[in-house]
Every structure is written in C-alpha cells, then in structure tokens.
Design a protein that fits this description.
Blueprint (H helix, E strand, L loop, with lengths): L2 E6 L4 H12 L6 E7 L5 E6 L5 H10 L7 E7 L14 E2 L5 E7 L4 H10 L11 H12 L4 H11 L4 E7 L5 E7 L5 E6 L2 E5 L11 E5 L3 E6 L2 E6 L4 E2 L4 E2 L15 H7 L1 H9 L3 E2 L4 E2 L8 H5 L3 E6 L1 H18 L3 E5 H4 L10 E6 L6 H12 L4 E5 L5 H5 L2 E4 L12 H20 L5 H12 L1 H8 L3 H11 L4 E6 L4 H15 L2 E6 L15 E6 L6 H13 L3 E7 L11 E5 L7 H19 L18
Helix pairs in contact: 1-2, 4-5, 7-13, 7-15, 9-13, 9-17, 15-19, 16-19, 17-19
5-amino-5-deoxy-1-O-phosphono-D-mannitol binds next to helix 9.
Length: 617
C-alpha cells in the first residue's frame, strides 16, 4: 500500500526521491508525488494520479522541470478516500503552503475534523482524509510550535493507525516522521551527510545498511547526516542502528520478464534458505533455535491457532494440517480479520502462529496484538525482519526467501510452508508424537524438496497451452481435499488476482452441497489430485464434473495413467512422500495463473486494485 521516502542531505533531493519511490512502488500504488524545499525556502510540490503510470509520469515531469532542493518527502498513494487523481495524490499542503505532509493509514474521524477546519475558514483541495493532517500541522506550526510538536499535536487529534512525514518552511533542513499504531513502518538511516526515511528498508539500502526501526508512538527528525528519535512526550530515545541482512540486488528483476517469474523460479533456493541451519541432513535432525518456548511449554500446549491473510492464510492452513497430523495437537487456521474481532478464547496453552511475509498486514498485526494481550504464547513466520510483527511475537521464525517484489506471493508461500513443516516436526518430536527415526525419515525427504520443486518447475510447456485454454473461461472452480485444499484455494486466489478470472476454491467434498449447480460446459475445473489416501475420492469428483459437461484440468502424480481416462487435461508433478505433495501441486497453480495473466495481457507484477503490503484493514 502507500509508501514513503524522505531525504535530507547535500544533493538535489528530486531524483533521489523518485528513486526512493521506485523502491517502495512494489507495495502497490496508484498515485505518486513529492515535495521539496527549494533554495528560496519555499515548498514545491509535484504529483500525478495516473494509476500505474503515475511514477513514470512524475519522473518525466520533474525531469523536464527545474525543481530542486536538498530536503524533501515523497509518497506513493494507494487510494482509500477519494478517487485516483492529481489533487488526491500526496503530499498535501496547508493553506498557506508552509507545511507539506504525506500520510499512510486512515484518519477515521476525518469528517468531524474536516467540518471543524472548514468552519474555521480552511479550504480543502482534495477529497482525502489525509489532507486534514496538513491543515492540523499547518495550524500548529502557525501557532508557534516546532514541526515535531505540530506533528505530535495533529496526530493526537486523529483516530486510526497512522504514519506521517512532514516538512515545513519554518525548519527547512528538517523532515519529521511519526508513527502511531500499525499503518506501515518507518525506518531511518544516515551516512556522513545524508539522512533518509522510508516505509521500507530496501529504499535505504543505496545509502546505508545500518537502519533504525521507528516504533509506534515515536517521532523522528532527520536532518543532513543526523537522526533524532523521541517519544510523544518529547524525551529523547537512544537507539542503536541494526545491520539489515536485506540486499538491493535481490530486489532486481535480472533477466526475467517479471518479478513474479523470477520469484517462482527462485523457489528451490527459497526452500533451502528456510531449511538452512535448521535441518541437519547428515544426522537427520531438525532444530528451530528461534523458538523461545521451553520443552515443557510445548508439551503443555492443547491447541495451535495459525493466522494470516490471503496467501499467508493458505500457508497457515497447510501449517495447521501438518502440525495436527504430526504432533497430534488440535490445530486450525483462521483469517486474521475474523480472529481479531471475535474475542476468541486464548490462554497460555494455546500457541498462536501468525504467517505474514511483510510483517505489516494490519489485520494480522491486530490479531497478534489480541493474542498477546490474552496471554497466549505467540510466534510469527515472516520474511521481513525488523517489521512490526517481530516486535509483537514472542519468537520469530524467518523464512529467508529473500525479498519478494511481485504483488502475488509465490516464493514466500513456499518458504512459509517449509518453515511451518519444520515447526510441526519440532513440536511433534518434543511432544514425543514422533521419534527420532521418524524425524530422520522426514528430514531425509525434505533434503529432496529443492530438487523436487525444481523439476516441478520444468512443466512450463504444458502450462502455456492450458493457460490459453483457461483464459477463454469466465468462471473456474478449484477443488482439493486435506492438505490439498489450501493449494486449491491458493490456485483460485492467484487466478483471480492475476488474470481477473472469477475463480472459486472449494473442498471437493462440498460440491454436492451447492456447487454442483454451477457445473457445465461454461466452467472449467482445476483439480489437485496427487496420489494419496484421498485420490479415489478426487477421481469421483472429477467424474461428477465430467458427467455434467465440465472440462477438467487435473494436477496429478507423474506416472498416474488412470487419471488421464477421466480428466481432459493432466499436469504431472513429481512423485514424492505425501507430506511434501502440496509443495509440488502449488507450482502448477502458480504457473497457470502467471501464464493466463500473460495471455490476457495483464501485468502479473502489479495486479489492479491490489497492494503488496496491506497496511489498513
Ligand atoms: O504480507 P502478508 O503475507 O501478511 O500479506 C497477506 C496477503 O495480503 C498476501 O498474502 C496476499 O494475499 C498475496 N500477496 C496474494 O498473492
């Protein structure tokens, strides 16, 4: 969602702000803008609300202009209040032009604040909720407050999670950032004569790898080569930078046409990353040193709740299925936006495991906060270390897939699944639900996982033809059972988000209870049916679809000749132990949606209306 980048230094900030915004654009955006303080000490703002072309158009516009300055703020907007256009793009200015702000989050009480400001004679230029902040900060500066005090004052009047950056002509060397709650992070860094602030660590990497994460209810000032952090009462906070492990090259497309194709291809390495230092293939053992629970605590667990949103929820569903089947602890996965509001019964014997690649998803963070306040032990499975989720959870299991830029999650899902499988094994062994010989067998099979996934990736050929075929349908059904259900749901989600084809994921056993009414020649069905205990049931489901004139694409185990007799098309994946089958069947689901998106001329890296990091609920 919205992204922030701010610069205070000795070079012209304008091209640097554009570059900074390019680093955060992957979060998802539809508008872009910058404000700089020029050599006369005036604020100059340029912005564009041209959907996906906004940043390119802004870059061209600033390139053709004389705009320059040493201090500035930039923003990529993902519209919530007010349509996508230039006026609604950030930054927003106070009426006298002395303050400019950019904002992530939602001002929940903006109507009330706007009415009050309008009554006092303020003229609004946009339909956004965020513009109230520009006027509140502008008023507070006009009353003699410093920019820092003014930003704190404005934030104290609003309801909702917020991250703000602001500049003022009264303090032209300074950028102030403030964070309340979870509306996306703020991270700062400096080198000799430059200081930078952004919503994403990656935007800071051209300047420094030593970064400081700003916590909720903190305010930060950056000025040429200087960073100062305060609490909202004005006390100085002394915080040492940490060295980030993220690297800039990993976030480049290389020779791939899209980030998504690169990230799909990187999955064997992502799995290796998730197992590094945890699975010992020579001894057949597995440890997760990051887990802070004692063995006694793990033994006394009576329930595991996994939570997340979207693709991360599907990884969580896979996690629940392997945790329950291996460790015999009742486990289920629940959508965080439901978990956070339904006042679930939680306590010291319920382990909550959040799955979130970004560590910033608003609903997931809220569910985690709820679990923390209910006293449940909690872990998080994530990619982006340093994100807010790591600070809420008791322990963090990094998935180490490398930063994912494509909006569609692919390698982070497979790395989350790998991490959750390892968690399941550790819980099961600690609780003596499996013994060391069984662990050895699982670890040995996991050692094959990267190469199995690599060979599953080799099926690209068949996928192209099938994608042509699927692109002709307006409705698709995805079916699975057991550990294949989350994979079917993920296949449907990917097809919706990338190809914009209506796709439903269903438990195959549910068909007779309503779904069958949809079957016919105008809907194709994708069935995940590797050879396992539920295989025969899946064959019956395929026959039911065929009997009603439906076309079936089956994802099946290599060498399965039977399925060819019932399905219209078969995509084969490598044979492997049942525990690993979801890793195999996931690959064709990803490739089918990627290829179908291309057939239909969609941009798989930036699907419409979606954001990579969903920082508002
Ligand atoms: O950053 P998170 O993993 O918490 O994101 C949750 C969802 O927004 C995300 O998984 C989304 O569904 C995928 N990017 C879709 O491909």
């Amino acid at each position: 969602m919205c992204g922030i980048f701010a610069y205070a230094g000795t070079k012209n900030a304008v091209p640097l702000l554009i570059e900074g915004l390019r680093s955060v654009e992957y979060r998802g955006y539809d508008s872009a803008g910058i404000s700089v303080i020029d050599s006369y000490g005036e604020i100059q703002t340029m912005k564009r609300g041209d959907h996906k072309s906004s940043l390119e158009n802004l870059a061209n516009a600033v390139g053709d202009s004389l705009l320059s300055g040493l201090v500035g703020i930039g923003h990529t907007r993902w519209a919530t209040h007010g349509e996508v256009n230039q006026q609604n793009s950030h930054p927003h200015s106070s009426n006298n032009g002395s303050v400019s702000i950019a904002h992530n989050g939602i001002v929940e009480n903006f109507i009330e604040l706007k009415d009050r400001l309008v009554d006092s004679g303020i003229e609004f230029q946009s339909e956004t909720d965020s513009e109230v902040l520009a006027h509140l900060v502008g008023n507070a500066v006009a009353s003699g407050n410093s920019l820092r005090e003014a930003v704190i004052n404005a934030a104290s009047q609003i309801k909702g999670n917020t991250a703000i950056v602001a500049v003022s002509t009264a303090e032209p060397d300074l950028v102030v950032g403030l964070r309340v709650g979870n509306a996306g992070g703020i991270v700062v860094g400096k080198n000799d004569d430059v200081a930078v602030m952004a919503s994403d660590t990656i935007a800071l990497l051209p300047y420094t790898s030593e970064v400081i994460y700003i916590e909720p209810n903190e305010v930060v000032e950056i000025e040429k080569g200087d960073v100062r952090i305060f609490d909202l009462a004005g006390s100085v906070i002394d915080r040492e930078p940490i060295v980030t492990s993220q690297n800039f090259e990993a976030a480049q497309k290389g020779n791939h046409p899209h980030f998504m194709s690169k990230e799909i291809a990187e999955q064997p390495e992502a799995i290796q990353g998730a197992m590094r230092g945890r699975a010992d293939f020579s001894n057949g053992t597995l440890t997760l040193p990051e887990i802070s629970l004692t063995s006694e605590q793990m033994r006394s667990l009576d329930r595991v709740i996994l939570t997340g949103m979207g693709t991360s929820l599907h990884a969580a569903m896979f996690g629940a299925s392997v945790i329950e089947s291996l460790s015999r602890i009742p486990a289920y996965a629940e959508n965080s936006s439901e978990l956070r509001y339904r006042n679930p019964v939680l306590g010291p014997n319920t382990l909550v495991v959040a799955v979130t690649q970004s560590g910033e998803t608003a609903d997931t963070l809220a569910a985690m906060e709820h679990a923390r306040s209910a006293g449940a032990p909690q872990g998080v499975v994530l990619e982006l270390e340093g994100s807010q989720a790591t600070r809420i959870a008791e322990f963090t299991l990094p998935i180490r897939a490398g930063q994912e830029i494509g909006v569609a999650s692919t390698k982070t899902m497979i790395a989350s699944m790998t991490t959750l499988l390892q968690l399941a094994v550790v819980l099961a062994e600690t609780r003596e639900a499996i013994d060391s010989d069984q662990v050895k067998v699982i670890v040995e099979s996991m050692s094959e996982l990267p190469s199995l996934v690599a060979s599953a990736l080799g099926i690209n050929g068949q996928i192209s033809e099938l994608s042509e075929r699927l692109s002709k349908f307006e409705d698709l059904l995805y079916l699975g059972r057991g550990a294949q259900l989350p994979i079917a749901l993920e296949g449907a989600l990917k097809m919706k988000e990338l190809a914009y084809i209506h796709a439903e994921g269903y438990p195959a056993g549910e068909m007779k209870h309503g779904v069958n009414a949809l079957l016919g020649s105008d809907m194709a069905t994708v069935v995940s049916a590797p050879q396992n205990d539920l295989y025969e049931k899946m064959l019956s489901n395929i026959s039911e679809v065929k009997a009603r004139g439906g076309e079936v694409v089956a994802i099946a185990t290599e060498g399965d000749e039977t399925i060819k007799r019932v399905a219209d098309h078969v995509i084969y994946v490598p044979e492997c132990p049942e525990l690993l089958q979801p890793f195999m069947t996931l690959i064709p689901m990803q490739l089918l949606s990627y290829r179908t998106a291309l057939v239909l001329g969609r941009d798989p890296d930036k699907p419409r209306n979606l954001a990579k990091t969903v920082t508002v609920e």
